[in-house]
Amino acid sequence: MKKDIQNRLKTISLSIIESYKTYKQISHLNSEDLPKREEVIDVVLRLREVLFPGYFSKHGCNSKSVNAMVDEEIDIIYKKLHKQVYCAFVLYADKENADKSKLLTSAEEKTLAFLGKISYMREILAMDVKAAYEGDPAASSTDEIIFSYPGIFAIMTHRIAHELHLLSVPLIPRIMSEYAHAITGIDIHPGAKIGKHFFIDHGTGIVIGETTQIGEYVRIYQGVTLGALSLRAGQSLRGTKRHPTLENNVIVYAGASILGGNTVIGEGVVIGSNVFITKSVAGKTNVSMKTPELQYIDKASKKSRKKDEDMMIDWVI
User: Fold this and answer.
1) Which class would CATH give 205-317?
2) Cα(118)–Cα(47) distance, rounded to whole angstroms?
């Protein structure tokens, strides 16, 4: 390599190194115990094999081998997850007063408590799969849903992340939820409380905020936002109820936005497509946009055509 190129590269390197000192908030040069994103993702995928045995096993699984499979996977998941939880505790601990032996013990207890919830998660996920099958006439079987529906993967990951969130495990739940977000386009914060028999259809573009509360037998479609009214106050809003509550048996169709921590959507409400809601809705109510008035322009004459009643849209909810 030419000497002048080497010199220029050295100058570039020195400039980058200097930036590490200037922007310390995005540097962790002395951290030995940072959690590893790839390990957290591996835990999610291994948990998927345990939660849905036989569907995603690399070596196959049957009634004779399932005991050995579960024993092996739970052992691996425990070791991997315990390490990552411990690293998260160290990262968020008071650096001057941290007792790493206590953090290690706490990570053990939290990991074991989480693993004890797997049977419960399977019970809830069975109802989520049932909800998807019953709610989607395009679904040919529950196998198709488990194998291929992004909504089920996003819900499964949320059920995992939420249990860790309830155990006050930092960072790891968010890594999990953002992994699911990246591959499905469905953004569910680990803090959101979601009841059983939850169905996400299509899913792309759905956002469910941290303090959202969703009841049982709820169905939502693509592009739905369950968000906050305003975030201008920033960190001062931490810990407050910023996102809406959906009671049991609510349906929210595509593109709807429901905002605000005081907004409660009552039981049995149906929210139509593209509706924008910032106030509570009483139960057993249908909310929809008025039918839009369409305009038809003839390309040749540039004149407006008469409305064709056969072409008008019927909004069916």
Assistant:
1) mainly beta
2) 9
pLDDT in tens, 64-98: 889 999 999 999 999 999 999 999 999 999 877 88
What are the DSSP calls for 234-255, one per residue?
GGGGTTS--S-EE-TT-EE-TT
Q: For residue 301, give the amino acid letter.
A: S
Residue 304: both structure tokens together: 């407006």
Sheet holding 207-208, edge to edge: 187-188, 207-208, 225-227, 257-259, 276-277
| Predicted TM-score (pTM) of this structure | 0.91
Q: Calculate ∠ Cα 179-180-185, nearest 5°.
A: 115
Going from N- to C-terminal start, the domains of the chain cover 29-187, 205-317
Continuous segment of H or E residues that includes residue 66: helix 66-92
- How much is the pLDDT for 313? 44
Rounded Cα–Cα distance for residues 235 and 288 (Å): 34
Domain 29-187 has CATH 1.10.3130.10: yes
**306, two tokens:** 């008469």
The owner of tokens 């839009």 is 292
Sheet holding 270-271, edge to edge: 199-201, 219-221, 251-252, 270-271, 286-287
Dihedral sign for Cα atoms in the order 42, 44, 45, 46? positive
CA distance 101 to 93: 12
Question: In the chain, which stretches have pLDDT less than 50?
Answer: 309-317
Task: Answer for the pair 284, 249: CB distance below 8 angstroms, yes or no.
Answer: no
Q: What one-character DSSP code corresponds to residue 310?
A: G
284: left (phi over 0), alpha (psi -120 to 50) or beta: left
Asked if residue 86 lies in contact with residue 103, where contact means CB atoms within 8 angstroms, the answer is yes
Q: Which amino acid is at 14?
A: L
What is d(CA 209, CA 220) in angstroms, rounded to the nearest whole number? 14
